[in-house]
Amino acid sequence: MSELTQLTLAAALKGLDRGDFTAAELTESHIAAVAAARPLNAFITETFDRARQQATASDARRVQGTAGPLDGAPLAIKDLFCTEGVQTTAGSAILKGFVPTYESTVTARLFRDGAVMLGKANLDEFAMGSSNITSHYGPVISPWTGKAPADAVRKLVPGGSSGGSAAAVAARCALGATGTDTGGSIRQPAAFTGIVGLKPTYGRCSRWGIIAFASSLDQAGPMTRTVEDAAIMLRSMAGYDPKDSTSVDRPVPDYAAALTGDIRGLRVGIPAEYRVDGTDPEIAALWQQGIDWLRAAGAEPVDIHLPHTKYALPTYYIVAPAECSSNLSRYDGVRFGVRVPGDSLAEMYENTRAAGFGAEVRRRILIGTYVLSAGYYDAYYLKAQKVRTRIAEDFRRAFEQCDVILTPTAPSAAFAIGERMDDPVTMYLNDVFTVPASLAGLPGLSVPAGLSSKALPLGLQLIGRPFDEETLIRVGGVLETAAGFHTRPPFIAGEV
Amino acid sequence: MSYVQGATGEWEVVIGLEVHAQVVSQAKLFSGAATVFGSEPNSQVSLVDAAFPGMLPVINRVCIEQAVRTGLGLKAQINLFSVFDRKNYFYADLPAGYQISQFTQPIVGHGEIILDLPDGSTRTVGITRLHLEQDAGKSLHDQHPSKTYVDLNRAGVALMEIVSEPDMRTAEEAAAYLRKLRAILRYLGSCDGNMEEGSMRADVNVSVRRPGGPLGTRTETKNVNSIRYVQQAIEFEVERQIEVLEGGGTIKQETRLWDTVKHVTRSMRSKEEAHDYRYFPDPDLLPLQLDQGWVDAIAATLPELPDDKKARFQEQYKLSLYDAGVLVADQASADYYEAVARGRDPKLAANWVIVELFGALNRLGKDIADSPVSADKLGGLIDLIVDNTISGRIAKDVFLAMLETGKSAADLVEERGLRQVTDTGAIDQAIDQVLAANPDKLAEYKAGKEKLFGFFIGQIMKMTQGKANPALVNELLTRKLQA
Amino acid sequence: MSLDKATVAKIAHLARIKVPEADQDHLAQELSAILAFVAQLDEVDTEGVAPMTSVVEHALRWRDDVIDDGGNVERVVSNAPEQVAGFYVVPKVVE
Ligand SMILES: [Mg+2]
Ligand SMILES: [Zn+2]
Fold first, then answer.
1. The complex's ipTM?
2. CA–CA min distance C69, chain B (Å)
3. Residue where one domain finishes, among candidates B277, B298, B319
4. The domain containing residue A51 runs over which residues?
5. B95 in any annotated domain
6. How many whole angstroms from B76 Cα to the centroid of ligand 2?
7. Closest to B339 (Cα-Cα) out of B362, B365, B357, B361
8. Is residue B185 one of the residues assigned to a domain?
């Protein structure tokens, strides 16, 4: 529809700077796109009035010469970020109607830098899922359809949990979106929808005001159409926050400046253990292609070992549910959210939480409760935290031999809504390549690198040293150029 | 060892106390909301305290300092590495569904408290540990027939949980333990020790056993908020448990409640179900790591504590163990005494502080902090006795007037003309008048009824309105009667 | 490790989530499958390995003891399903 929605974030910011168009015009185009893309169900709450106000204010700032680095850029905000005065649901029935009186640190930083919020993007309930089918507000539908015709009944998942964010960016509803990643929730949906997703180092972005899933793993990051756009967004999102004890006090670099294109002499680790059984041969081939691209650009591929890789998923499925079982105890129908009455306090709690949480959330709370309970703590939770130490050690040792690690992002391309739904464990396997870096707190970047034989996007993942997002961005930029992934999804907002 | 006599023989009582002491701080343990009590419901609540989505804890420096100070005051091990855990359970006044506490790795390890027992002996009670944790909110059950009202003003206030070893054997020892702990906390300024306002509460663990036998099953009576109630709860439990055991029953390990109206302990219905707290390290907080140098710096600022002060009072002022113990029971009394004793007879000062001042404060129901007579003014009164301006007897009247008026002793003596008469002429004159007015008594005295000496003294003092120097009166009267 | 119906009922109560008896069997199966999956960790030698407490390697930061929050009852109770005079309201609790 509008050419303005086809721009990258970087190009749009330049256009605003040059005065080619106003923030109001840019925002109107994106509002129209969000409205046109409603069939994808990418948003839980649209905030068009607020977007228009923010755009008008942005134009005023530009006139005054006080525009920030993201001034006038329309973004989608995952509905896990608390936004002041705007309903925030975490994709759950239990928070329906919850209106925070506070703004998350990350969104506050984005708005400080001039960003415009189009709405709150759909997600898996409490960010638990890899397909965006667990949202109480309905599944998000991927703008990609594969080789099936666009009107086919077969609808694909956008990945999860940041599925609404991914779909919105891929379908050109927003120039970028915030995501959160606990075990792969930024990188996997980015790979499924052919966009860039960056999970920063744990501690880089403040968790304050982001609804917690698993506190020791949750990390916010940008989802964009280019690596440069991710670098621009991250610069605004990152930074020390005294309100988050796990936030790290380090200067925020100009990430976009890392896009030098020069990776000569860089050692790229290729972990043998990521060649797992059952990986789609197309994925293996793409990975090899990635290695070749980087070698051609002057980098040196190095074989490395991450021996505890296969234990990452089982570790994750103890640690994350344990933390979530405790984090989600606050949803009890007393201070906020939905209440289902009961004759006693215990009954009110049980009714509220049974009705308020969906099946996957309930399942994880129960598993988490079990692994922490008396007699099982040592065998499960303590054991998992020890294995986690081992996994982190694997990476530390690997980074003595290499500067960055290259792997596929996901073991397959996107699947259809309804597939793989009957068995939770099969669904968990989606995160097999993303979870290890999450457990070690390392930064990971997914870059769209090619199309499957069924014409679905595939991504490659780069994993870096702690706080070395710049190397990820530099290498990611080279991968992006080499892959030249410019295929647009069949569904572009306003074009179908 | 004191045992309790039951119907079937002797029983040994085993008591351990867990004290929750509210840390003196402006703000809460993990939020910036105020800690003062008595405000409007939910007016001192941050969204962190109310566990809103996305809220995170950040620890208060002063609360850590206070815990370390207290640990040092209890001569305890300070753990440079400790961990905050989540204790998970659902309750209306626990907003997050978990309490942030310390479980396996507390900030303070083993220490001790020396009890001062009424007979002047001492006894050492071990401290198992001290850890930091959040207080819960307050549930009001009596506002509505079918509802409970919840106020979170208290939620998140820092508490030190101080756990004793099961080293106490009598209710009196438990009381002595609480008094001593409270004194130490107050000296340190880490807790105001105000049990009525709930800033110090005790969980009382009691069991009984045959002397030397294996430990019995214990009950825990929660949140007892006065030393007297602690004693009564222990006495009740001991009697109850012995009765149950001697009747062939068994003690159920359970949580009980002290009924302040009926003066009994009873089983707590809400806590009856088995708890599984699912402790695990709070992933929102990193481990707490302290620097030894930082701990040493706190140690250097510690005040002189009761035991050391008591020893010094005995040594420096030659006070009895009892007097020293009474004076150091709280910092304010000790400071008051030292101000009075400075440059004066320390024993006379101790007498005036302990007998007259404490007696008066007791009658008035006042604290030493708001004593109507300052240490300076009490010192002034003592000076007037020592330099013979007034007699000790008159001094007591002057002291009463000081309590009432707040005036200095010197002013009152001047104003009321209470200056002691030391003029022998004036005293002689009074003696002559008294003897002249009582010729019959004088005759009886001369006939051998020497008891009447006291009568004459009384009459003379009366005539001089008590102002005559008693020693002089004594001396001059003796001389006159012998003449 | 497999989990039975009674255990499901027990942990559901600990987690305060009502699980109708009819669902307990099914849930027991699902949870058992997850536990079987995570049981792989038994293979890992973790002798002498310290459990991870945090992936962030820096000291816990402390806040100063200043009052900079609270004092806004409306903010605290405005989202509550039931409130009276600034109190949260819940079904009566018997102690
Ligand atoms: Mg206790
Ligand atoms: Zn406690």
1. 0.97
2. 5
3. B298
4. 2-266+401-483
5. yes
6. 19
7. B357
8. yes
Domain count, chain A: 1
- Closest CB to A326 among B50, B98, B285: B98
Q: Which of C16, C62, C70 sits opposite B90 (nearest CB)?
A: C16
- Helix residue ranges, H only, A238-337: 281-296, 312-327
Is B316 part of a structural domain of the chain?
no
Strands of the C83-84 sheet, one edge to the other: B138-140, B147-151, C87-91, C83-84
Using the beta-carbon criterion (under 8 Å), do B27 and C71 form an inter-chain contact?
no
Contact B375, B340 (CB under 8 A): yes
User: Is B150 near chain C, with CB under 8 Å?
Assistant: yes
- Is B254 contained in some domain? yes
Q: B41–C65: do the CB atoms touch at under 8 Å?
A: no
Ligand index nearest the alpha carbon of residue B87? 2
A310 in C contact zone (CB under 8 Å): yes
The CATH number of residue B449's host domain is: 1.10.10.410
Pairing between β-strand A176-181 and β-strand A219-224 as defined by DSSP bridges: antiparallel
Q: What share of chain A is helix, strand, coil (3-state, %, to 5)?
A: 45, 15, 45
Residue B53 contacts A where some CB pair is shorter than 8 Å: yes
pLDDT per residue rounded down to tens, chain B (483 residues): 689 999 999 999 999 999 999 999 999 999 999 999 778 999 999 999 999 999 999 999 999 999 999 999 999 999 999 999 999 999 999 999 999 999 999 999 999 999 988 887 889 999 999 999 999 999 999 999 999 999 999 999 999 999 999 999 999 999 999 999 999 999 999 999 999 888 999 999 999 999 989 999 999 999 999 999 999 999 999 999 999 999 999 999 999 999 989 999 999 865 546 689 999 999 999 999 999 999 999 999 999 999 999 999 999 999 999 999 999 998 999 999 999 999 999 999 999 999 999 999 999 999 998 999 999 999 999 999 998 888 888 899 999 999 999 999 999 988 888 787 777 888 888 899 988 899 998 889 888 888 888 898 998 888 888 888 888 888 888 888 887
Q: What is the CATH number of the domain that holds A170?
A: 3.90.1300.10
Q: Which ligand is nearest to the CA of B130?
A: 2
**Residue B454, domain extent:** 424-482
Chain A touching partners, 3 or more CB pairs below 8 A: B, C
Tell me which of B258, B275, B298 is where a domain ends.
Answer: B298
Which of A92, A161, A325, A438 is catalytic? The answer is A161
CB atoms inside a 10 Å sphere around CB A3: 8
CA of B425 to the centre of ligand 2 (A): 75
CA A345 / ligand 1 centre spacing (Å): 23
Structure token digits, residue C73: 């009852």
Q: How many whole angstroms separate alpha carbon A282 and alpha carbon A148?
A: 19
Residue A293 corresponds to which tokens in the numbers above?
């691209």
